[in-house]
Amino acid sequence: MDQVRIFALGGLDEDGKNMLVVEVNEAIFIIEAGLKYPDTGQLGVEFIIPDFSYLIENKERIQGIFITHAHDDVVAALPYLLKQVNAPVYTGALTANIIHEMLKKEGIKNAKIHRLKRCSKQTIGGVKIRTFPMTHAFPDNFGLAISTDQGYIVYTGEFIVDYDMLQKEYLCDLNELSDIGKKGVLCLLCESQGADKSGHTAPKHRITSLIEPIFEASEGTRILISCYSQSLFRIIEIIELAKKFNRKIFFHDKGIRELLKHLETMKYYRVPKEMEINEKNFSDDMEDVVVLISGNGKNLFRTMTNIANHEDAHVSFRTSDTIIVASPIVSGTELDASNMENEIYKEGGKIYTLDSKTVLSMHPSSEDLKMMLYLFQPKYYIPIKGEYRHLYVNANLATKMGYSPDRILILEDGQIALFENKILKSVAQRLELEDTMIDGKENWDVTGVVLKDREVLSTDGVMIIGVGVNHKTKEISNGPDVQTRGLIYLKDAEYIIKEVGNIMENCIEKAVKEKRYDNLTVRAEARDKISKYLMKETGKRPMVLPVIMEINS
Asked: What is the pLDDT of residue 331?
């Protein structure tokens, strides 16, 4: 019977960086390759991606990478993975077009991108795999069922259940889900971020009824409305409202215009040409227009702050403007969103913010998750995607559906669930993982070290100790000279500076006396001793940089 291993390289007890691995015997299948944005304290970090070490070591076994849609938290790490692992990518038609553009910008050639129908069956690496359509904020979204002789491994992807959804590219096929469930599901993996919300997410994901009265009340004046770039469903709602009120629309961000072009190419949605104002024809003094400001995460709120401060190249805030924040504030953006609101209020503006408790993102609430359990009837349930509290609440939902605790797995990143003979054999084995931090540079495998150094510098400062020695005799000829930045005020800590100099001198003299002097070795020894001394005296661990200059006399 097949041996099945399931584990995550990211996405458990965190927001974003989603990556799952399913192994059926020797075949490895990767599901998603996402990033997450850094916490406020992670200075200089642009974003964080999973640790690919295990995949690189076992790249010959990888049969495919499945990307369910084109949101950053599931696709944006893909270029970094493909630079290390040349494996075929399987995804929907719209997402495939976006991935092609993404890889082109990164200079990645010869990547094999296979377009899947949302409802399909294929054999990859000797394993039968089904896709099934699911409703999400991004069109062409799908879930995945990997066949084993123990039963299907089902990954729902990100979804909601919306009975009023009419567009084909967003539709969910519950009959397909039920059919998979009838054939036997060993393990179901469902996302958890909305598990603490009661009822169904639909229709609380729709914003038209909430912002239409604001459009009506703002006749003759300009509307600035912000929305996350990847909330395509919500952006289309905004465009349709602008159309209803005969307002022209200006897309502030070029990125969203590119996404809408992809929709037009797929014939999913088209913005009427007569209602769009391009950058060349847009003027900041126009009235009765809608300015759609889009972006991702904190950058969206920072753009709005720039507009309020009159620091934007295209739009400058006026007190007559109506401002709508159509993307509710989410974890990690609170500070930037607060700064934005402060700046707008200082300018005397009117701002309407949609509350995240009233307007839900297109992720499953409790009843949506219960429906998946009902349709698939899995033997085991694994909550995924979310902080630990979300995973815990999702697990509790399963217990209310009659699942005993031994059939529910709350895993950690790197923890491996091993299944044999339709039974969970072990969760003891785990991979040691480290976040890979990216600062936007090409040499990404080095930046993790660099960014950690930046963090040390930002919190505990730096101390540089310079000494000159005779190149032949190794006798100290000048120094030591001690300089600090961000550690201590020198005039108040002369004894520390003197002792640090003494430690440096002693390390050099002792090594010379014992005839074991080596420049690098002595510097490392001095660094260690000085660091311990500074920790004892100051309670800080600054970056210590000993420098020994060997001078020809």
From this structure: 60
Query: Residue 160 in 3-state DSSP?
Result: strand
Q: Is the pLDDT of residue 438 over 80?
A: no
Q: Which residue has the higher pLDDT, 27 or 548?
A: 27
What pLDDT, on the 0 to 100 scale, is given for residue 445?
47
The pair phi, psi for residue 530, each rounded to 5°, is: -65, -40
DSSP letter (8 states) at residue 30: E
- Other C-beta atoms within 10 Å of 193: how many? 22
Reference 441, options 106, 32, 108; nearest CA is 106
The string of DSSP codes covering 366-429 is HHHHHHHHHHH--SEEEEESB-HHHHHHHHHHHHHTT--GGGB----TTBPEEEETTEEEE---
pLDDT in tens, 288-314: 899 999 887 777 878 888 888 888 888
Nearest of 293, 419, 378 to residue 25 by alpha carbon: 419
CA–CA gap between residue 398 and residue 407 (Å, rounded): 9
What letter would DSSP give residue 275?
G
CB atoms within 10 A of CB 40: 11
Instruction: Please give the angle made by the CA atoms of 278, 279 and 281, to the nearest 5 degrees.
Output: 70
Binned at pLDDT 50, 70 and 90, residue 207 comes out as: very high
> How many CA atoms does the CB half-sphere of 540 hold within 13 Å?
19
Q: Within 10 A of 354 (CB to CB), how many other CB atoms are there?
A: 19
CB atoms under 10 Å from CB of 380, counted, come to 23
Any long-range contacts for 348-351 (C-beta under 8 Å, 24+ apart)? 348/319, 349/308, 349/317, 349/319, 349/321, 349/323, 350/321, 350/322, 350/323, 351/323, 351/324, 351/325
pLDDT, tens only, 28-55: 999 999 998 776 555 566 788 999 999 9
DSSP SS3 for 512: helix
Question: pTM of the prediction?
Answer: 0.80
Compute the distance between CA of residue 235 and CA of residue 225 in angstroms, rounded to an integer: 10
Strands annotated E in 415-528 = 417-420, 423-426, 436-438, 462-470, 476-485
Q: Is residue 144 within 8 Å of residue 31, measured between CB atoms?
A: yes
| 164: Cβ contacts below 8 Å, ≥ 6 apart | 202, 203
Structure tokens at 310: 């009159």
3-state secondary structure of 341: helix
Pinpoint the alpha helices (H) of 231-360: 232-244, 254-265, 298-308, 334-346
